[in-house]
Specification:
Strands 1, 5, 6, 7, 8, 11, 12, 13, 14 and 15 form a 10-stranded mixed β-sheet that branches. A 3-stranded antiparallel β-sheet has the order 2-3-4, with helices on one face. It has a two-stranded antiparallel sheet with strand order 9-10. It has about 850 residues and is α+β, with helices and mostly antiparallel strands. It has helices at about 85-105, 120-125, 135-150, 180-185, 210-225, 275-280, 285-305, 320-325, 350-360, 375-400, 415-430, 440-465, 475-485, 520-535, 565-575, 605-610, 615-665, 680-735, 740-745, 770-785, 790-810, 820, 825-830; strands at about 30-35, 45, 55, 75, 80-85, 105-115, 155-165, 170, 190-195, 200, 205-210, 240-250, 260-270, 335-340, 370-375, 470, 505. The chain binds adenosine-5'-diphosphate (ADP) and magnesium ion. Magnesium ion (MG) binds near residues 121 and 238.
């Protein structure tokens, strides 16, 4: 019967079937079964006492000639040998546990190999007409359904299929059943398909079996359909491989688990393994025999490859048989091979060949594992439940922390809109803080920022397009058009005179292509005129008219000097322009309309004027800092001298003391009642002096260290001031006098001309720098260029300083052995104690 029911309901439960049974060994199990016969070759076949090894002695085959290197004696050791064993014994010993394992989720395969007539079919299927002689499959089905009844806590579904492979063609042995007609298209050839769930045969019908009887019906139906070829050795024997498969799906009834197990049990009745010469087949049968051998040869190759653990590629796809069995031999599958042996003397060669195959199979690794599957529908339900639980948990948390009315649902359109408005107000400055409520709101806020940012970008480009004609530098057609229209632009889109540019080029497109009649060229002309007028209207030799509105620094129209130190002037400039501010600095457009013509004054000259006027404040601070630095250095030098002379005094006192000591020892030491040495008043005096000197020395030395730190700090300040002065001068200078000829000299920035805030490598010679300052600056620069070298330079500097100290101290200091070597330690950690230097 074919139906979609669930099997395995029973009133009582099984204990201890939950635990997974580990397999005894991690390789394929191989047994031999000897077919009972009255002509058993006792003199050739020797079964050992251990019940698992067999020796084969062959007689020299006269047909193969006098000289042949036939091996005559063989010894095979397997996992066990069934001799005169009943069907029941065979099943109970090797197959029964595979059935139980299958219910636990492990795949299992029982395979019979051997020559035709050796008893493969007898072992797998058995004599269908005799209940006692029934084979492994009927017994397995019987046990399966019994065990299912003993597992009422599981809903277990059993399906079966029966496949025959004959001459590399696959046949569905159950296709004769009416329910198969819906499942498979008889016209369509069956194919072996692989996916993440394993290997299966597409087009092969699967049939649900609710009980043992239904399952057996499928087996018998298939048996009668088996293709049987007439054969000289055994009329019942077949040339085909037959695979009866039982598919088991196990779900727990007690736990609503998304996880369930699937497993399959394969029972493989292989075709006869005899060689073609023996069969004496002719015509069609001969062809069949060749096929049999071929597919068994492929099986053997697969076994050899599987046995070699270094092999990565296993040739499963070479034949239908091996492809079908890809996930059923070794690997994660419990695999059992039964080698069927026909123990008569004419069959000795086949016996040896069968047993050789069997021993080879013993090398195939097998590490069975449970096949677990997750049911997405059940999983979704489970996760939904979990989400609900967490939401409740959150709600409770919010209540406890007085956070009310917070929802955790996805944001609605309205909420999104409100968050965006909030971001807008925040950006405008009318909202001080955006309160964080939950993750969704944070994400919404970021989205708001992104939207506004993208909108701004579009606006900027739009405005640029309104004001200028933008040429895409990557578009040769646009460049050509611009060139035709007379714009001084090179073929790679760079404006003539412009350093290597990036982004949009600014130029002039043909008149027809323009959206706005106020072209760049016209604009520039106007500006240059304005500029020229303003220049001629004042003393050109004194370009430092910093505060004059007509200063060239302010004629750089469109330039938005964000970091300008004089914002008020910039504002004035914008007012004067009387135009909507254009954010040109974003794309570097400002370069194009900043071409000035007059000759700038020499930089040194301009610098002097800059210091006197616009840079006077910072110059004053610099001068002041330098004075402080000098005085600190002086005090440092004085103190160092004092420390030195102190040291000399200490040494002298020591010498004197030494002299007293020697004198005393020469005269013979005198002791008082307590046993102390009596010393002279002079010596006592000297000792006291030494103590005082040492104390003085110690405190002076400490002070010296502090002073050193202060000197270093001042030096840094002076350097900062100097840099700032130079930078501001350079900004001012390039703003005021930048021209194409001088640009390269002053600017390092590529493509965007001089940008505010960019430090330029100009070091006016007018700033004196002493040796110390120079050394420190060079160190600094080196470090800036290569931060990884910090450790190296620090070490170098330390050594340098130590040398300086040592020279100053002239001798090593015995009483402060630790300190003099590492003066920088305390300097680094301790801030200077009394500094009034400020940047103003
Ligand atoms: P194969 O499938 O390997 O070609 P069969 O299973 O058809 O061989 O066996 C050939 C004959 O030998 C059958 O008639 C079968 O009943 C008989 N036979 C095989 N093995 C046994 C056995 N262990 N006990 C009794 N009869 C057997
Ligand atoms: Mg057979």
């Amino acid at each position: 019967m074919y139906s979609r029911g669930v099997t395995g309901l029973s009133a009582y439960s099984r204990e201890s079937n939950q635990e997974r049974r580990p397999r005894k060994s991690n390789r394929v199990q191989v047994w031999a079964r000897i077919r009972p016969t009255s002509q058993f070759a006792h003199n050739c076949l020797e079964l050992n006492q251990d019940g698992r090894s067999i020796n084969v002695h062959m007689k020299k085959d006269g047909r193969k000639g006098v000289v042949n290197n036939q091996i005559l004696d063989w010894s095979f050791r397997l996992d066990g040998i069934f001799h005169n064993a009943s069907q029941d014994h065979v099943f109970g010993n090797v197959a029964s546990e595979l059935v139980t394992s299958a219910l636990d989720g492990y795949n299992g395969t029982v395979m019979c190999y051997g020559q035709t007539g050796a008893g493969k079919t007898f072992t797998i299927t058995g004599a269908t007409e005799n209940y006692k002689q029934r084979g492994i499959v009927p017994r397995a089905l019987s046990q399966l359904f019994k065990e299912i009844e003993e597992r009422p806590e599981y809903a277990i579904t059993v399906r079966v299929s029966y496949l025959e492979i004959y001459n590399e063609n696959m046949f569905d042995l159950l296709s004769t059943l009416p329910e198969s007609w819906n499942q498979a298209n008889p016209e369509q050839q069956m194919v072996v398909v692989e996916n993440q769930d394993g290997v299966f045969v597409k087009g092969l019908s699967h049939h649900i079996a609710q009980n043992e009887e239904e399952a057996l019906n499928f087996l018998f139906e298939g048996e009668t359909n088996r293709a049987i070829a007439a054969h000289s050795l055994n009329k019942q024997s077949s040339r085909s491989h037959c695979i009866f498969t039982v598919y088991i799906e196990t779900r727990s009834r007690v736990q609503s688990n998304a996880r369930y197990t699937v497993s399959k049990l394969n029972f493989v009745d292989l075709a006869g393994s005899e060689r073609l010469g023996k069969t004496k087949s002719e015509g069609k049968t001969q062809q069949e025999a060749m096929y049999i051998n071929k597919s068994l040869t492929f099986l053997e190759q697969v076994i050899v490859a599987l046995a070699d653990r270094r092999r990565e590629h296993i040739p499963f796809r070479q034949s239908k048989l091996t492809h079908c069995l890809k996930d059923s031999i070794g690997g994660s599958c419990n695999t059992l091979l039964i080698a069927n042996v026909w123990g008569e003397s004419p069959q000795l060669e086949e016996t040896v060949s069968t047993l050789r195959f069997a021993t080879r199979m013993m090398c195939v690794a097998s590490e069975p594992s449970v096949n677990e599957v997750y049911d997405p529908a059940v999983l979704v339900k489970k996760l939904q439940k979990e989400i609900q639980y967490l939401k409740n948990e959150l709600a409770m948390h919010d209540t406890l922390t007085n956070r009310t009315q917070i929802t955790y649902e996805p944001l609605s359109e309205q909420q999104r809109y409100e968050i965006r408005q909030q971001v807008r107000r925040y950006l405008e400055g009318s909202l001080e803080d955006i309160d964080i409520i939950n993750i969704r709101q944070i994400q919404g806020t970021f989205e708001g920022f992104k939207d506004i940012y993208l909108q701004m970008e579009r606006d900027v480009e739009e405005r640029l397009r309104q004001k200028f004609t933008l040429i895409d530098r990557t578009d040769p057609a646009a460049i050509a058009a611009a060139q035709q229209a007379g714009v001084a632009i090179t073929d790679d889109g760079t404006l003539v005179g412009e350093p290597d540019g990036q982004g949009f080029g600014v130029g002039m497109a043909p008149k027809v292509a323009k959206a706005d009649p106020s072209s760049v060229v016209q604009l520039k002309k106007k500006e240059r005129e304005k500029d020229r007028k303003s220049r001629t209207g004042r003393d050109t030799k004194s370009p430092v008219g910093g505060k004059s509105i007509s200063s060239p620094s302010q004629s750089a129209k469109g330039e938005r000097d964000i970091k300008s130190p004089h914002p008020s002037e910039r504002e004035k400039r914008d007012d004067r322009d009387g135009e909507a501010p254009t954010p040109t600095s974003i794309s570097g457009v400002s370069r194009a309309d900043k071409i000035l013509t007059s000759t700038p004054p020499p930089r040194t000259e301009a610098f002097e004027e800059f210091k006197a006027d616009r840079g006077s404040e910072i110059n004053r601070v610099l001068v002041e800092n330098k004075q402080i630095l000098n005085s600190k250095k002086q005090s440092y030098a004085e103190l160092a001298r004092q420390v030195n002379s102190n040291k000399v005094e200490i040494d002298r006192t020591r010498d004197r003391l030494e002299k007293y000591r020697m004198e005393r020892e020469d005269n013979g030491p005198q002791y008082n009642e307590e046993g102390d040495v009596i010393i002279s008043e002079e010596e006592f005096f000297e000792i006291k002096r030494l103590k005082d000197f040492k104390m003085q020395y110690k405190s002076d030395f400490e002070e010296l260290k502090n002073l050193k730190a202060e000197v270093q700090y001042c030096q840094k300040l002076v350097e900062q001031c100097r840099q700032r002065l130079v930078q501001e001068f350079d900004n001012w200078y390039s703003e005021s006098f930048v021209g194409p000829s001088e640009e390269n000299q002053t600017s390092q920035a590529h493509g965007h001309g001089v940008r505010p805030g960019v430090q330029l490598p100009f070091n006016p010679s007018s700033i004196p720098e002493d040796e110390h300052e120079k050394f420190d600056r060079l160190q600094m620069e080196l470090l800036m260029n290569n931060p990884d070298s910090a450790a190296f330079y620090n070490a170098q500097m330390r050594t340098q300083r130590r040398k300086t100290y040592e020279t100053a101290m002239s001798q090593p200091q015995p009483s402060f052995r630790k300190s003099p070597g590492t003066p920088t330690m305390s300097i680094r950690n301790k801030p200077p104690n009394m500094l009034q230097v400020s940047m103003g």
